[in-house]
User: What shape does this take?
Amino acid sequence: MSLIMLKDIALPEHFPLPQPVSAEALAADNQLFDRVKDAIVQHKALLIAHYYTAPIVQRLAEETGGFIGDSLEMARVGKDSECTTIVVAGVRFMGETAKILSPEKTVLMPDLASECSLDLCCQPEDLKRVKAEHPNATVVAYANTSAAVKAQSDWIVTSSLAVELADYLKGRGEEILWLPDRHLGSYIANNAKTDVYCWPGRCVVHDSFDPSGIVELKKAHPEAKVLVHPESPAEVVALADCVGSTSQLLAFSKQDDAPSYIVATERGIFYKMQQACPNKTFIEAAIAPQGVTLDGAKCPWMSLNSLAKILECLEGDAEQKAAHTITVPEDIRRAALKPLDRMLAFSAALKSGSVPQDL
Assistant: This one.
């Protein structure tokens, strides 16, 4: 296999990271819990929260009949729900995905400024140019991309399906143009043993994990196993006892018998891990001193999903609600729907044990 890193891609020099949420704001959020819970029930809304949101947001989803999961699971649940109002607590591409799959529903987000660094690394204009330079390549876009990028893609995939899809495409003799995460692209190329034209983007959290720091943690906790998300650098992946998506890491921690785990992914997942395994210890993997996050293994944009903002998107005036409403132009939505539907069909076929050659 070979990894061919794409050149002349316009990557941000600095990401516009929001400031960490203050202790005062967190305390105020705690006081709103019952009020926001009532508002969700009264508006018959479905709250879908990503594993990386704050524990209080995940608890709110649990207590209102909502859902907590990774981006693939969120996409499925939003599509299949009978609720006509969906509140997506995550980052913007997740809200866009919900709207693409459910155009007839109102899709709200606590804060439309909740970006994703991987999304910011891949602009539609750059992709259009790169596609022209590689006209025979199949464009496989990570879910962590904008609707406009998805609309130019042949396939959408999450980390839980990435290697399997690469194997599938290799079997059909197709070249892969992967975007936007360089680390996941490297992981795909290594594990599917196929050539990958790779976009050089990065996740600000996973790119910051420090292999030498993890080695030191392992020395201090020799009984601990290392869980790693494949958006992490190859040197970190090489230390892992388990590599997988958030849902796969959670499943491993439930099924495995180790007493403790060093976890190299966003620490929001600790809420569900600790809930599922109350007698186990979860340790945040080391961040490099030059890491680009402001607050350790914590996505600064996920922190924008507050209870106060959830309340505003449900009970605010018309102008406030509009500021929380996800819209996707219909031409882009229709184009992006095709690769998203393929992802869901591929996932279902994998579970059934038989993937047709003509998806």
